[in-house]
Predict the 3D structure of the following.
Amino acid sequence: MSVERKGWGCLSIWLGLIIVAMFVMLPVDKAAAHHDAAHTAKMKELDSASEALYRYMQDGDGAKAQLEMDRIVQIVQTLSFQGLTSVEGIHALSETIIDTREALARSQSQPEEWRASSSQLRLAVDSLLHKEQPLWIQYYKLFTDDLSQLSKARTESDAAGIKQAYHQLQEHYETIRPAAVIQLDPSLVSRADSWMSYMESLCEEKAAEPDTLKGAISSGTDLIHDLFGKKRSEPTLLPLTGTTTPWQWSLLIGGWIIVALTYTGIRNYNAYQEVRPAAGSKGRHTWRL
């Protein structure tokens, strides 16, 4: 009897603990859901404010831009970045906000600086919110065009054209760099920084070695593909060089094709001979294998 009472006592304790846990967990779940909802609302507000700031600074409307900047600073100060980006990404976003606020606070409007800083901040905030299709990825075409211009200027030995193409590339890189730091592995961005620095030293030289510059542009092409998450170009099969008789290769390839087709035809014929209906089994569906 005592054993039975102990069993019921243990069962009652377990049921009591389960009920208590249910009542304890409900407020926790509600609090977590409330926190997630508040965090999502802040993120959307930050996205809206950065877009408005970009538009006002592009238009040169300093008064409205300042209101949006104040709103961005207020949101960022209360926002949790856990799970959104790395320490380097947080630093890049903070630095971009400070640079944009300083550009906005200057006494006179400087259109070029305003456009550059507001673009940086807009892309940085967008990359924080949109991991799959961020806006800064759209700069890939501009980068490939810049590299094409660099390669063309190098081929033509156009020193002025080389400098101009590099400065355009540098401007585009500085625009997307904070956004890239927020999303990518810091080591990849460090590689890009090193390559840009190396290119600057080559392009600023009065007489850069053509082969050295060619190699740098080639390595930069692969780096840009990595930076934007693009697949590197597959090797293209080109005609064999070093021969003055391409018709011989055509005959050789044609011969291989003929041999392959002949071999396949013989195998099919032999298979047909071996899989005929057995003699005396007319009308039956038995086959000799």
Summary: The first helix runs from residue 2 to 59. Residues 14-129 form a domain with the Four Helix Bundle (Hemerythrin (Met), subunit A) fold (CATH 1.20.120.660). The CA atoms of residues 60 and 278 lie 92 Å apart. The chain has two domains: 14-129, 133-231.
